[in-house]
Design goal:
Strand order of the largest sheet: 1-2-3-4
Number of helices: 2
Largest sheet: 4 strands, antiparallel
Number of strands: 4
Helix content: 25-40%
Number of domains: 1
Distance between the termini: 26 Å
Length: about 90
């Protein structure tokens, strides 16, 4: 239950922080993030770089069709919660 509440709060905060700003993440531009999404456990924290900030993988959720990971991004002037999902064999979106 605590995890579900945290998940909801992070998504709400992320929605507030990112209103009006469309973010694009790709394996080419955020290689370290995508490598962590592929193989690192929940709780993994890494610095992207000085300009971009850092991230932490908060939680992982799966169902029969897809795998999703909730990530906190601490950027220069804001905190953003992003959910990355993919179908089996697909790419994170």
């Amino acid at each position: 239950m605590k995890s579900l509440i945290l998940f909801s709060v992070v998504l709400a905060l992320g929605g507030c922080a990112s209103k009006g700003a469309s973010r694009e993440y790709s394996r080419e531009s955020h290689q370290g993030l995508f490598e962590a999404l592929d193989s690192m456990p929940d709780g993994t924290e890494r610095v992207l770089n000085e300009k971009l900030g850092s991230f932490r993988i908060r939680s992982t959720h799966a169902d029969a069709n897809r795998l999703c990971r909730l990530v906190e991004l601490r950027l220069k002037d804001e905190f953003v919660g992003e959910s990355f999902c993919k179908a089996k064999g697909g790419e994170w979106r």
